[in-house]
Write the structure tokens for this entry.
Amino acid sequence: MEVRILGAHSAEVKGMRMVSLLIDGILALDAGGLTSSLSLSEQQKVRAVLLTHHHFDHSRDLVTLGANGATFSSPVDIYALNQTLDVLNFCLLDGKMYADFSKWPSKDKPFLQLKVIEPLQPQNIQGYDVLPVPVQHTVPSVGFQVTSKDGKSLFYTGDTGPGLAACWQHISPQLLIIEVSGINEVQDFLKSVGHLSAELLKEELLQFRHIKGYLPRVLIIHIPPQFEREVKQEIKRIARELRIGIDIGYEGMKIIL
Ligand SMILES: [Zn+2]
Ligand SMILES: [Zn+2]
């Protein structure tokens, strides 16, 4: 399994894009920096996008993906919770701001085919076993455990605050891709808006180790560009305290599982 980090941040500045990951060139997780990271021929190979939730920094490139859809040989499947699709239909794909590519060029054969996922209901998507697991955010959100045919497995939380013990019960990944969205100093605020600081992440990782008896490789994304230096230092500190390595994701990073 090849995992490409297309967007590793919660906002966009030159060289940093909003969150999006790509597995083996065909399965995307979130669409913050999807089309801005891929050539047209690479976009044509993307067969499905899994959305953790509807927030703009995770969904916005659906519009540009749809706009490029005329060059695709087959439509792209967009998998998300019912509540996520409702918001997308009402706001991002409303047909007013731009064309609604979930109904265009025709309702029967749109470029973007919206498909509902249910929490904790496993599905085979493009040959991968996908398990959506609820996480702690301000809007309905799931993380995804994606397992390849040869048994390689990752879990991507998307945006989440603390309180992941129930989530950990359901998963056993080799790679955990999780967020840190700000500095420790404002962790009460981060908690209130469904995000993690490095210190809050440490507690969640301790709980993972307690529940599962091991820690997977950990990769951090969704760091805000303006606080990147401080957040990286705080992550290094908790890695030392936990006696593990923690990787920090960046645009263009490739991981082979
Ligand atoms: Zn969010
Ligand atoms: Zn986000």
Summary: The longest strand covers residues 128-134. The chain has eight helices and 14 strands. The chain has a mean pLDDT of 97. Residues 175 and 217 are 5 Å apart (CA to CA).
